[in-house]
């Protein structure tokens, strides 16, 4: 083969897709940066280890074995197939055919591995489609999983399906051509790929070489176009976890899950209140630039950048929701929906700011327009959602920040909790007992 | 029953002494009638093992956990800083508590506000006392051969990764320890955390404690063991919901050990 019009088309598709992907990813990074700062650059070694274990090693996926193992098939297939993609790209740009074939036995081994993994991925894809659409596993049919999120989940699986079919059409047809000495690749005879060396002649053996050349090209171009389409589609899809899972796990919380942040802005005020030497009439240190601090979170810009990264990483698997005690007992709270709402809202705010500048205000907010108070108050802070997430997303910290806003900015709190807090203030206990009676138990029979 | 010896920090200080460990009783343990029994069981164990301990008594105050979980960070930090002043005033180094919520808050959230203590849950202390040979139960007492299932408190388990200490303690009872389908990292909340203890649940189709009690009933236990006063309340209510209170007891591990050791 030689350089021609098809190579120019190839290069155009490649450049357009990658440029578009880069452009969208840049926007997403801008959106993540809308979050408040949070230092997660400590403990680099521990963070790296966690990333290798949880993201690269998929350690939390297998806690649900069926989905976990099927997912590992697709994951490993995806990673290894990149070698074939790399070959396709070099071939497509330079006008060669199977440039790596010169590697001989090693090439046959790698492609054979890809073929085996592709079959496993195909099986996993079918099982996933069945789980979503026929078995209707509860976590895939919750109320937040209708419309786009449902379609999104299926589109990815359909693409995966087409991709595998393309790979086998390409390899199978090319195998037959090479046996006939008519392949464009160097050398002759069987490629020796584990599956297509059997399956190719069985399926394509009876076809004439012209048809085979066409089928081979359809497979090759199909594979490439699906991958580039997938790349362009990714920024709009929950499937972006394949990219963000790694930084997301790296920057995840390493402290005890029970530890909530102590708000520094509050600490400063409480210290002033408890310090007998403070002059209550002293003018506050004048800083004309200072923006009055808001307590807690009302909108996505009040969250931290890690919360927003979490939202972009969420692939809506719903393990959090299916383990949430509030959700399993029919309450409206769904940790997955919290993450989806954050993502939808930050997309909206990000687009608004790019269009109208920093003063963008559409009169909407995360709390109220996306997440209701009812959801926020249903949480037991049990950490099941955090524990279950295969990529260490932390919906709980968002829920807590929304509560903080409701309570400290708007004094909106269920009346029983208002009473409880009053009791703590007045009686040093959540119930209305006298502090003087605290040791009475000692003498009671 | 021998008289409980419950020295306060103030009494100890007046005698020029310092305890090895502060027993943080908590609001439930001080005021809730059911939880007070747990408190006394812990004291009996401490007394029997000659642990030099003290309580703060009337100087103790809510850690602020429910305030923080309900979003009132101001109140939490006020409580925390007042408590830290008291704890530091007595130069407290080590704290044991029978409440996982107090445990979590004191252990994880006080250091950031200047309060640094070694904090352990009573299941860990009891486990240590067994390991040191100070505590012994002969044959498991009334619990011998009984079927026991342990409900993991969220703030002990997932929140702080303490899963084994309470189970190791229960193994001393010569009983049959069975796990619920959702246990340890996958344990289902009793429904009380995050200040839910103090409010009605949002509309749904079931109470969380009922869902959790169903998990327990599935393994047909004689006893549901807990390590948290709130879990105890929720599971007790759950068992009552199924009219099983005559067959199934909900007990704290401290009560079980204290009873088995005939204290």
Q: Report the count of strand segments of chain A.
A: 0
Kindly report how far apart the N and C termini of chain B lie.
Answer: 7 Å
Distance between the termini of chain A: 96 Å
Q: Give the overall shape of chain B, derived from the CA principal axes.
A: globular
* Helical content band of chain A: 55-70%
When the domains of chain B are counted, the total is: 2
Question: Which percent range describes the beta-strand content of chain A?
Answer: under 5%
Number of H- or I-type helical stretches of chain B:
11
Q: In the CATH hierarchy, what is the architecture of the largest domain in chain B at level 2?
A: 3-Layer(aba) Sandwich
On the 0-100 scale, what is the average pLDDT of chain B? 96
Along the chain, the helix and strand elements of chain B come as HEHHEHHEHEHEHEHEHEH
Main beta sheet of chain A: none
Structural class of chain A: mainly alpha
Radius of gyration of chain B: 18 Å
Number of strands of chain B: 8
- Name the assembly state: heterodimer
Query: What Rg of chain A, in angstroms, do the CA atoms define?
Result: 28 Å
């Amino acid at each position: 083969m030689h350089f021609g019009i098809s190579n120019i088309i190839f290069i155009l598709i490649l450049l357009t897709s990658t440029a578009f992907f880069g452009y969208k990813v840049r926007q997403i990074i801008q959106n993540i940066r809308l979050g408040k700062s949070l230092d997660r650059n400590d403990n680099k070694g521990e963070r790296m280890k966690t990333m290798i274990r949880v993201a690269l090693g998929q350690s939390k996926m297998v806690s649900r074995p069926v989905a976990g193992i099927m997912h590992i098939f697709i994951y490993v297939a995806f990673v290894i197939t990149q070698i074939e993609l790399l070959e396709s790209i070099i071939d497509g740009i330079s006008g060669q055919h199977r440039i790596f074939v010169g590697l001989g036995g090693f090439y046959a081994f790698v492609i054979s591995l890809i073929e085996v993994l592709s079959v496993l991925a195909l099986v996993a894809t079918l099982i996933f489609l069945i789980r979503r659409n026929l078995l209707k596993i509860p976590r895939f049919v919750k109320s937040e999983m209708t419309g786009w999120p449902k379609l999104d989940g299926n589109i990815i699986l359909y693409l995966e399906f087409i991709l595998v079919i393309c790979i086998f059409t390409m390899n199978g047809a090319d195998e037959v051509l090479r046996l006939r000495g008519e392949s464009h690749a160097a050398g002759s005879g069987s490629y020796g790929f584990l599956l297509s060396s059997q399956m190719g002649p069985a399926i394509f053996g009876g076809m004439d070489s012209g048809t085979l050349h066409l089928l081979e090209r359809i497979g090759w171009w199909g594979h490439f176009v699906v991958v580039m389409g997938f790349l362009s589609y990714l920024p709009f899809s929950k499937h972006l976890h394949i990219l963000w899972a790694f930084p997301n796990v790296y920057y995840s919380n390493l402290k005890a899950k029970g530890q909530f942040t102590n708000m520094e802005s509050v600490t400063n005020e409480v210290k002033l209140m408890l310090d007998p030497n403070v002059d209550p009439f002293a003018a506050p240190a004048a800083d004309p630039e200072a923006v009055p601090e808001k307590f807690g979170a009302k909108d996505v810009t009040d969250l931290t950048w890690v919360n927003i990264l979490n939202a972009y990483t969420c692939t809506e698997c719903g393990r959090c929701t299916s383990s949430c005690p509030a959700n399993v007992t029919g309450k409206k709270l769904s940790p997955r929906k919290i993450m989806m709402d954050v993502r939808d809202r930050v997309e909206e705010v990000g687009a608004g700011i790019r269009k109208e500048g920093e003063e963008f205000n559409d009169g909407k907010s995360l709390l109220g327009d996306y997440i209701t108070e009812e959801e926020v108050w249903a949480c037991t802070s049990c950490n099941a959602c955090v524990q279950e997430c295969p990529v260490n997303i932390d919906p709980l910290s968002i829920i807590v920040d929304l509560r903080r806003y409701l309570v400290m900015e708007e004094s909106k709190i269920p009346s029983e909790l208002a009473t409880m807090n009053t009791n703590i203030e007045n009686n040093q206990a959540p119930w209305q007992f006298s502090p003087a009676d605290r040791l009475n138990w000692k003498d009671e029979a | 029953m021998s008289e409980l010896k419950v020295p306060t920090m103030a009494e100890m200080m007046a005698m020029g002494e310092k305890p090895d460990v502060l027993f943080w009783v908590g609001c439930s343990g001080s005021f809730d009638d059911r939880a007070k029994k747990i408190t006394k069981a812990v004291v009996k164990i401490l007394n029997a093992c000659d642990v030099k301990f003290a309580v703060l008594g009337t100087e103790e105050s809510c850690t602020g956990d429910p305030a923080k979980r309900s979003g009132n960070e101001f109140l939490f930090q006020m409580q925390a800083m007042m408590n830290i002043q008291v704890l530091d005033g007595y130069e407290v180094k080590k704290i044991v508590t029978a409440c996982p919520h107090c445990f979590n808050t004191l252990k994880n959230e006080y250091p950031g506000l200047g309060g640094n203590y070694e904090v352990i849950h009573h299941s860990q202390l009891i486990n240590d006392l067994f390991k040191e040979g100070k505590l012994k139960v002969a044959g498991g007492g009334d619990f011998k051969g009984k079927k026991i299932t342990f409900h993991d408190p969220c703030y002990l388990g997932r929140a702080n990764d303490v899963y084994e200490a309470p189970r190791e303690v229960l193994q001393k009872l010569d009983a049959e320890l069975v796990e619920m389908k959702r246990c340890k990292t996958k344990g289902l909340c009793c429904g009380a955390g995050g200040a839910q203890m103090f409010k009605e649940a949002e509309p749904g189709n079931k109470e969380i404690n009922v869902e959790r009690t169903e998990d327990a009933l599935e393994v047909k236990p004689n006893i549901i063991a807990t390590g948290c006063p709130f879990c105890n309340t929720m599971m007790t209510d759950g068992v009552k919901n199924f009219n099983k209170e005559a067959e199934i007891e909900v007990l704290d591990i401290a009560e079980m050990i204290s009873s088995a050791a005939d204290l």
